[in-house]
Amino acid sequence: MTEEEILTLQDLAAYLKIAEKTLYGYAQKGTIPGIKIGSAWRFRKADIDAWLEDRRKLTESSRRSAKKQEG
Fold first, then answer.
1. How far is CA 64 from CA 53, 54, 58, 67, in A?
2. What is the mean pLDDT of the chain?
3. Which among 59, 56, 39, 38 has a CA at the least distance from the CA of 48?
4. Do 42 and 8 contact (CB within 8 A), yes or no?
5. What is the pLDDT of residues 17-43, one digit of tens each?
6. Distance separating alpha carbons of residues 67 and 39, to the nearest angstrom
7. Which of 2, 28, 66, 67 is surrounded by the fewest CB atoms within 10 Å?
8. Model's pTM, two decimal places?
């Protein structure tokens, strides 16, 4: 898979290891970066990887905050 690659909903669901129905809901709500072409969703792998990195940073940040509140 290259950074320039365009993924279908099915491809991305497999890549993220989540249900297609869940991914479709995320796309419809704008939770995950995607483009609707006609009735089909498409996703740039580079955008998805950047989105995943943002989510990772948010998760780490919230864990650090939780630890500070505990201690």
1. 17, 15, 10, 5
2. 90
3. 56
4. yes
5. 999 999 999 999 999 999 999 999 999
6. 44
7. 2
8. 0.80
